[in-house]
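Our collaborator T.R. sent over the components below with a one-line note: 'Predict the complex.' Nothing else. No constraints on interfaces, no templates requested, no preferences about which chain binds where. So this is a plain run: every listed entity goes in together, and whatever single assembly comes back becomes the starting point for the next discussion.
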Amino acid sequence: MTYIVTDPCVKCKLMDCVEVCPVDCFYEGENFLVINPDECIDCGVCEPECPVDAIKPQSEDEADGRWLKVNTAYSRVWPNINVRGRPLADSDAYRGQADKFNRFFSEAPGDGS
Ligand code: SF4
Ligand code: SF4
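Returned assembly:
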């Protein structure tokens, strides 16, 4: 089992989550973060750190495993991040919006750390 990052993270990237992970398994895209499911030790420490409840246990994934697929795919190609970076300047404007992944998700990698 693993934890997964889900829709509320898109265009947020507050990154309260990355510094608490004991195994440094967060990976950074341009406007989204993912967890590498093969590296996550299922400790749950990151879940309460996320102010927008974007981090969920795999058991709360959508029925088709959508978020596990997204986290798996992009953690293979994006750079690792374990130091909190700067949040996106417009993150507050997008907080709470629905279906952000379909509308705004970028496949571009982030800068990593
Ligand atoms: S704290 Fe939550 S919304 Fe912010 S980068 Fe981490 S998972 Fe994404
Ligand atoms: S559950 Fe633990 S190991 Fe997995 S991403 Fe969160 S902090 Fe890292």
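Summary for T.R.: The chain has one domain: 3-84.
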